[in-house]
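Review this chain:
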Amino acid sequence: MTGESAYDPLRPARRPGGKPDRAPTYRVLVHKAFHSHYNELVSRVGEQQAKQFWDHVAHQPGKPDPIAQTTILKGKAGKPRGSGWSRTVHYEVSSSARIDYQYHDEYTTTAEGDPHRAVAILTINYGSH
């Protein structure tokens, strides 16, 4: 995820429920290990909460969500994945669904690539606390 490797495990994460009303500020990406979990989001938490999560990370990933609880993780769990990445944000989609993500304001997949804003969904957990 540092953009220094030819291998990039991040895949696009489409907005649940279809195209957004406005263009996203950040590209929403999900780690390939959690892509199938991401595809279950609507069936697990409902379309409204899934859309709320996507809209939040696509536009203001560094700010607290006005409805859902977000926490910046401390210690090793919160450590940025590389240069330019934020600390890990823990987002509670519902009482039984949590998503950890980091965001980057100038992410590139290659050294000569164009920088863009991106959010990387790192983990999705559907278990209880």
